[in-house]
Design a protein that fits this description.
This protein is α+β, with helices and mostly antiparallel strands and 423 residues long. The chain has 16 helices and 16 strands. The strands form six sheets. It has a five-stranded mixed sheet with strand order 2-3-12-9-4. Strands 6-16-13 form a three-stranded antiparallel sheet, with helices on one face. Strands 1-5 form a two-stranded antiparallel ribbon. Strand 14 and strand 15 form a beta hairpin. Helix 8 packs antiparallel against helix 12, helix 10 crosses helix 12 and helix 12 packs parallel to helix 16. The longest helix has 32 residues. The protein is globular, with a radius of gyration of 21 Å. The N and C termini lie far apart (61 Å).
Amino acid sequence: MTVDDRFTPAADDRQDAPLEGTRNEIITGPVSDWATDFSHTEGEWAADPYPIQDDLRQRCPIAHTERFGGGWLPTRYEDVAAIAYDTESFSSRSIIMSNFRPPKEIAPVGGVPPISSDPPFHHDARKLLLPAFTKTEVSKREAATRAFCHSLIDAMEGQEVVDAARDYAQHIPVRVIADMLGFPQEDGPRFREFIESALEGVNLPPDERIANMGRLFDYLLVQIRDHVDRPREDLTTFLIDAELYGQKLTPDHVAGTMALLLIAGIDTTWSAIGASLWHLAKTPADRERLVAEPELLPTAMEEFLRAYAPVTMARLVKEDLSWNGVEMKAEDWILLSFPAANRDPAYFERADEVVIDREANRHVAFGLGIHRCVGSHLARMELRIALEVWLERVPSFTLADPEAVTWATGQVRGPRTLPLRRR
């Protein structure tokens, strides 16, 4: 089968294939007790999950819910780490805790490899991507990223109040990932729609959610076909040409990995940038110190990642098992909260404080185990450059209206709106 054969309209029978798996009743509304009825999609969690996690860690460290068809929420570092490393008991075939469980047969590849892949396939799928995300490769994008950050601030000229989320943070990873994949830069607004639909739309009616994901993969297929017709040096062409086990990647593998890079590679980073700016806007002492001591920024940046880790991942229980006193059933969700692990006082001194000169900081913002973020070097570069440029160009700023700050719901948490007043 030639490359062209894989991506021709005749070969694309994805929309005609029945979507198998398990659906369950959608349950929304106020949480009655976070220990027995938690939901990461409710506004209270989005606004401030940390007191909830701290309370659970004390009185019910592995919370349960009947929502989403049943799931568990570990809040202690040791439990989060143990589950992250245990690929024998827990599957990654679906990483978004929702009202749909894909069929077991999609393992070990999953829908968006390698993050949805189980061993042994995961190792080889991840290895394919590593060369594109080394420190050396990432460093080649620094100059363009810095210039783009300056251009975003140039566009704010004359505005006393700006939305640092929508006008700054949310543009930076969009541009970087679009360049890496060879996508049109003007498609940025579409990327944001795809991201919000995938990560925040887990309680939408099934038909609507399926349609939304269909639009994402239709878009990716258009980009793939364009690259087949006009190959160029970017990550999309690399995936089209890549081989695994002596064969070209399947169309689902190519499109799934591109979907992963587009969604996870963008929202996680803009959330980290936005949360860091939010902290500095409401904490003038930290902002003033970083302006006066810019060499401290790399250390402070790691503390922002610890304290405001944006990413929570999901796993599925493979078989019935007892885990630290709770009885987990096959196909139960596990909501693997890296933010909760990062604030466990058993592992971090002054865990609930943001200490910008914290030196011992083995945070898990990028995950643990085999699925540790392959793009961590890229994310760190974008976060560092975004903060360096902002503090250089806008050294004095505050929250224009603390009540107007909104946060994303779901498993990637960061500011969706962040009005700042420049001084």
